[in-house]
Amino acid sequence: MRIATWNLNSVTARLPRLLEWLSAASPDVLCVQELKCASDMFPVAEVAALGYEVAAHGTGRWNGVGVLSRVGLDEVRRGLPGEPGYLPEGAMFEVNEPRAIGVSCAGVRLWSVYVPNGRYVGHAHYDYKLRFLEALRDTVAAERDHGRAFAVLGDFNIAPADDDVWDISAFTDSTHVTEPERSALAALRAAGLADVYPRALKYDVPFTYWDYRAGAFPKNMGMRIDLAYGDPRFTGAVSDSYVDREARKGKGASDHAPLVIDLDL
């Protein structure tokens, strides 16, 4: 079984690249993030032509998550149980951003997540990020030990260790590397999950994200922020894992590359 995760940075803008990659990589399940489209605007017909069902959770503009599967989609849940809302500046009411969707595919329970960026330390969005991760931890604790493989995949917007960014000195007082964020990842591991660390291909560290600016990709100024955290049933079945850097190359690419995991279930 091949399971992958990919922040598309707009499924509409990236549709030709998505279809090409699905045909070439042939994943059984693909978790996607940053759809930037409403659920009913997802290009279902185009991916269905390749044999995939779709479960999407999006409201348009920003955010949005989904799962594409050719091995079934069951027990779909949009949003985490107890998921917090975010109160934008100047707003009267919190909004629930579409950042998590849970599905079961061929007996494997999966969550596709797009963890809030946090913007900067001290911002309300940073607190929202930490509260979202608490809700994710609670979901893991409630769901992971049900006799089936379980994993959370997606864009976590956190580099687990200093080596997971190209230059830790460039991140002084920045989000993605702070102690509270990394502690939240440690809490996920303490809830029974482990990091599926992909093998390095061209470089020593398998980065998954490179900014569009300043030639970051050819200079390999990247970050490993797209992660897969699995329970022992999931991680024990992993036969291979890698980052498909080729998908980051060329015109019209997302600023993220797919993380691909092969399992012998």
Q: How would you characterize the overall build of this protein?
A:
This protein is an alpha+beta fold and 265 residues long. It has helices at 15-25, 44-48, 124-143, 179-190, 232-235, and strands spanning 2-7, 29-33, 53-57, 65-69, 74-78, 100-105, 108-114, 150-155, 194-195, 209-210, 222-223, 226-230, 238-243, 259-263.
Q: For this entry, what is the oligomeric state of its chains?
A: single chain
> How confident overall, as mean pLDDT?
96
Rounded Rg = 17 Å
What does the overall shape look like? Answer: globular
Residue runs with pLDDT of under 50 for 5 or more positions: none
How much beta, percentage-wise?
25-35%
Distance between the termini: 7 Å
Structural class designation: alpha+beta
Order of helices and strands: EHEHEEEEEHEHEEEEHEE
Q: Largest beta sheet: what is the strand line-up?
A: 3-4-2-1-14-13
How does the major sheet shape up? 6 strands, mixed
How many extended strands? 14
Measured as a percent range, the helix fraction is 10-25%
Total helical segments? 5
How do the strands and helices of this protein lay out in sequence?
Elements: E1 2-7, H1 15-25, E2 29-33, H2 44-48, E3 53-57, E4 65-69, E5 74-78, E6 100-105, E7 108-114, H3 124-143, E8 150-155, H4 179-190, E9 194-195, E10 209-210, E11 222-223, E12 226-230, H5 232-235, E13 238-243, E14 259-263
Parallel strand pairs: 1-2, 7-8
Antiparallel strand pairs: 1-14, 2-4, 3-4, 5-6, 6-7, 8-12, 9-12, 10-11, 13-14
Helix pairs in contact: 3-4
Summarize the structure.
With 265 residues, the chain is of the alpha+beta class. Helices cover 20% and strands 25% of the residues.
